[in-house]
């Protein structure tokens, strides 16, 4: 049934990861409503969802820039993306 | 203890299903295509991130992206100020209000490919009204099928003609919602026209302007039909905007993998610019 979607394991895992992250945020939101809204060091008012969005969007650009400038392997941009994610959830 | 009624989720469900089928699932398929190569027959071969790497280093992609940003930048720089000026000069009450509103709305009622075809005929050097007038009456050499500058000017003028009305109507809606008391207070204080615009009208229009700029950015960044019908991306590649190039790769060359990778990068750019703009414009509102 899903043959036309041309699934691969890596892309499936990416989506599982994103939906799992959204699921976890939903669970946290049920336990602690309000989205942990705060004004971060960039001067933006962000909730947990905003921080996840910024992490994911930033990750896309880190990987694209690395592919364009240096190419593979991609361990360094992976590290940079994780650091960016930590920074987003910690400070932004 | 549950204090909230959760029934609203059932009302949201149809929209969720609709969005899943018309946006989410196709988007996931594009992601799957972007890491594979296909020669048709529903057979796919793993390619990893090669398409992304090739695109990020491709001169053709950089050129199309540059043209796209140039086009969007120019039409925003023209349509937003022009829209504000027209909205400010429209009457706020009386007989002429509906006349102005309908006239303004007319260009937006015309289907995109018809707009392209109209302007194509309008600008033909020998029989088009504008083309003939410029070439044979004013003596200006104008032929958009041969001259890249003429093609660019035509595409931009066409977009301004088609979409400035949207900015006008949104700004006008913002303007008529300003209570008279503001103007009376300004008059008592002896405020100049500029001060009224700067401190009353512009702040009151800020929210509709944000929406207008966002809509015009997204629409013009994703524009396809009008320039495709008008110039076909030519002369040469001079008006080949990002979406025209994308369709060439996807349907012309049937390179679905690279086209999928390109559309994801395209999507990421639109998303980032829209998010940045919206966040910066509403930053002060949420404090």
The main pleated sheet of chain B reads as: 2 strands, antiparallel
Please give the radius of gyration of chain B in angstroms.
23 Å
**How many structural domains in the coordinates of chain A?**
1
Main pleated-sheet profile of chain A: 2 strands, antiparallel
Query: Strand-and-helix sequence of chain A, N→C?
Result: HEEHH
Verbal overview:
Chain A is mainly alpha-helical and 92 residues long. Chain A is built from three helices and two strands, in the order αββαα. Chain A has helices spanning 9-31, 48-69, 75-90; strands at 38-39, 45-46. In chain A, helix 2 runs antiparallel to helix 3. Chain B has 287 residues and is an all-alpha fold. Chain B has one domain (59-281): MetI-like (MetI-like fold, Orthogonal Bundle). Chain B is 73% helix and 2% strand. Chain B has twelve helices and two strands. Chain B has helices at residues 8-34, 50-56, 59-89, 96-109, 112-122, 129-137, 148-176, 180-188, 193-221, 225-231, 242-252, 256-281, and strands at residues 36-38, 44-46. Chain B has a two-stranded antiparallel ribbon with strand order 1-2. In chain B, helix 11 (242-252) packs antiparallel against helix 12 (256-281). The longest helix of chain B is centred in the N-terminal third of the chain and has 31 residues, at 59-89. The mean pLDDT of chain B is 89. The A-B interface holds A 3-8, 10-11, 14-15, 39, 43-45, 53, 57, 60-61, 63-65, 67-68, 71-72, 74 and B 25, 28-29, 31-33, 35-36, 38, 42, 44, 46, 48-49, 52-53, 56-57, 265, 268, 271-272, 275, 279, 283, 286-287.
């Amino acid at each position: 049934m899903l043959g036309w979607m041309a699934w691969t394991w890596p892309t499936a895992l990416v989506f599982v990861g994103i939906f799992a992250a959204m699921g976890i945020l939903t669970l946290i939101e049920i336990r602690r409503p309000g989205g942990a809204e705060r004004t971060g060091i960039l001067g933006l008012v962000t909730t947990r969802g905003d921080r996840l969005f910024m992490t994911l969007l930033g990750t896309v650009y880190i990987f694209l820039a690395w592919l364009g400038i240096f190419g593979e392997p991609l361990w360094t941009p992976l590290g940079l993306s994780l650091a960016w994610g930590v920074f987003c959830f910690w400070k932004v | 203890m549950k204090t909230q009624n959760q029934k609203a989720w059932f009302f949201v469900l149809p929209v969720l299903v609709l969005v899943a089928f018309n946006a989410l699932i196709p988007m996931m398929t594009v992601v799957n295509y972007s890491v594979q190569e296909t020669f048709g027959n529903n057979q796919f071969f793993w390619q990893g991130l090669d398409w992304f790497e090739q695109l990020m280093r491709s001169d053709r992609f950089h050129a199309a992206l540059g043209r796209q940003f140039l086009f969007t930048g120019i039409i925003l720089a023209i349509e937003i100020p022009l829209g504000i000026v027209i909205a400010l000069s429209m009457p706020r009450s009386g007989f002429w209000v509906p006349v102005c509103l309908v006239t303004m709305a007319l260009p937006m009622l015309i289907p995109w490919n018809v707009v392209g075809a109209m302007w194509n005929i309008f600008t033909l050097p020998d029989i088009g009204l504008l083309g003939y007038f410029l070439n044979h009456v004013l003596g200006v050499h104008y032929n958009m099928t041969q001259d890249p500058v003429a093609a660019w000017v035509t595409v931009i003028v066409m977009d301004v003609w088609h979409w400035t009305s949207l900015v006008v109507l949104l700004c006008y809606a913002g303007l008529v919602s300003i209570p008279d008391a503001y103007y009376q207070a300004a008059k008592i204080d002896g405020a100049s026209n500029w001060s009224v615009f700067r401190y009353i009208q512009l702040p009151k229009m800020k929210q509709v302007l944000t929406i207008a700029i966002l809509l015009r950015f997204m629409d013009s960044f994703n524009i396809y039909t009008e320039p495709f019908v008008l110039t076909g991306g030519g002369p040469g590649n001079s008006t080949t905007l990002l979406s025209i190039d994308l369709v060439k790769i996807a349907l012309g060359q049937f390179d679905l993998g690279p086209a999928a990778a390109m559309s994801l990068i395209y999507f990421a750019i639109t998303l980032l610019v829209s998010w940045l703009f919206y966040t910066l414009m509403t930053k002060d509102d949420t404090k």
